[in-house]
Design the sequence.
């Protein structure tokens, strides 16, 4: 029936009524708020001026009783929180709170709302009881200033008045709006249904949950837009599926490349063949128990496979030495974390693994290398790898020593809890071993020269 969006827009005239009503309500509310504020300020000034006039005579005549009666009478009003009369030295000579008599009056700073020519002022101040409109009027007698009158009016009184006025204005505005809504209800539904349908389609497409095409309700501009959206959605879905396959292939190729590189590094030493893979498996188990997410576990595994990449620069004479390393050789071996970090820094994609690779030989008590980090300053991944690396190294046979049994290695791990290894991670690892979960998970992992008992 309608082929132009302009015709449909005419059915939204009620929105104009709504906007005008809201603007009018806003303007009326602002005017009412200002009126109520001005009324309260006028009342406050009236009270303080009358009090100041009476206080002048009382101070000159030293009639403290009259001042006290005046303070008590005014403080009986619901909105008045306090009334204080202060002499020219700042000493309270009369106060609605008798305990403050004779004390120094502490003036509070706040937002100044108005200042009169005679020095009277009103400002909003914060008190233990909340916001207060504090009126200050000088006490003048025979042209001489004898002190000041301070009157505190509860700001919540004004807020209550505003709320009452707003309810009335809101009720009237709501009535006008309801009439407009009822008159245009069916027409607005006719227009908004295809728009809502298109909006839901965009949301589903964004979340990857769109299946099928959106219904085309009309042949106007919105109908053409929906038709174009359906065509765009088909193209996006097809491209997303292709991109997903390509991403999966690239990710698999990346992981495979890392595994090959790790195996190549480990293969330089027949005794450590499969070491990086085993460290990765152990570390991922620890990470799972610590509650790491899927993406974190994947990054942890990659960091483990790279943790000894720096040994590419370590000479074969040191890696293959049949005896224990001397001090000079050990210093060279200690360079492999830094060498590994330098190698990873060559790739922007691999830089995120640098902290784990660089610090996996740090000790919890700060006596490790290369930076002497301690406690929680050691990155989490590095602390996890430290335990997995040490356990695999202890249970692997070397030319100059036999590997420890699992139970012996576990006792060493326990012994160095809080010294070399992070206490919490140590407890998680010990539970993995003692429960048998580690053995079950490591089944099928490439083994080096190991002692399992």
Sequence:
């Amino acid at each position: 029936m309608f082929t132009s969006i302009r015709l449909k827009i005419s059915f939204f005239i009620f929105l104009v009524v709504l906007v005008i009503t809201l603007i009018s309500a806003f303007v009326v509310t602002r005017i009412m708020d200002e009126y109520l504020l001005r009324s309260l300020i006028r009342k406050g000034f009236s009270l303080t001026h009358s009090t100041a006039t009476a206080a002048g005579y009382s101070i000159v005549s030293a009639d403290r009783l009259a001042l006290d009666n005046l303070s008590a009478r005014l403080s009986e009003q619901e909105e008045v929180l306090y009334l204080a009369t202060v002499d020219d030295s700042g000493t309270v000579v009369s106060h609605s709170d008798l305990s403050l008599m004779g004390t120094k009056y502490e003036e509070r700073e706040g937002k100044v709302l108005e200042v009169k020519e005679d020095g009277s002022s009103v400002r909003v101040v914060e008190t233990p009881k909340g916001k207060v409109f504090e009126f200050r009027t000088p006490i003048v007698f025979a042209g001489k200033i004898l002190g000041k009158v301070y009157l505190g009016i509860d700001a919540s009184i004004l807020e209550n008045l505003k709320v009452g006025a707003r309810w009335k204005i809101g009720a009237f505005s709501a009535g006008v709006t309801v009439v407009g809504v009822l008159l245009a209800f069916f027409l607005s539904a006719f227009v908004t249904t295809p728009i809502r349908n298109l909006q839901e389609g965009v949301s589903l497409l964004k979340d990857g949950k769109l299946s099928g095409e959106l219904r085309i309700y009309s042949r106007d501009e919105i109908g053409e837009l929906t038709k174009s959206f359906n065509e765009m959605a088909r193209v996006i879905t097809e491209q997303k599926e292709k991109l997903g396959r390509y991403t999966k292939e690239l990710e698999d190729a990346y992981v495979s490349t890392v595994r090959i590189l790790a195996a190549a590094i480990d293969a330089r030493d027949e005794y450590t063949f499969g070491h990086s893979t085993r460290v990765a498996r152990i570390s991922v188990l620890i990470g799972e128990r610590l509650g790491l997410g899927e993406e974190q576990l994947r990054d942890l595994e990659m960091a483990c496979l790279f943790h000894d990449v720096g040994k590419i620069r370590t000479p074969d004479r040191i890696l293959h030495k049949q005896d224990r390393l001397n001090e000079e050789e050990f210093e060279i071996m200690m360079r492999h974390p830094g060498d590994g970090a330098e190698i990873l820094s060559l790739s922007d994609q691999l830089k995120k693994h640098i902290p784990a690779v660089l610090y996996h030989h740090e000790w919890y008590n700060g006596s490790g290398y290369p930076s002497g980090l301690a406690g929680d300053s050691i990155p989490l991944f590095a602390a996890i790898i430290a335990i997995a690396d040490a356990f695999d190294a202890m249970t692997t046979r070397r030319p100059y020593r036999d590997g420890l049994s699992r139970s012996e290695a576990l006792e060493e791990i326990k012994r160095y809890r809080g010294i070399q290894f992070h206490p919490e991670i140590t407890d998680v690892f010990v539970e993995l071993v003692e429960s048998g979960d580690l053995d079950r998970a490591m089944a099928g992992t490439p083994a080096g020269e190991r002692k399992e008992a």
About this structure: The radius of gyration is 41 Å. The chain has two domains: 5-162, 267-442. The CA atoms of residues 345 and 351 lie 5 Å apart. The chain is about 55% helix and 10% strand.
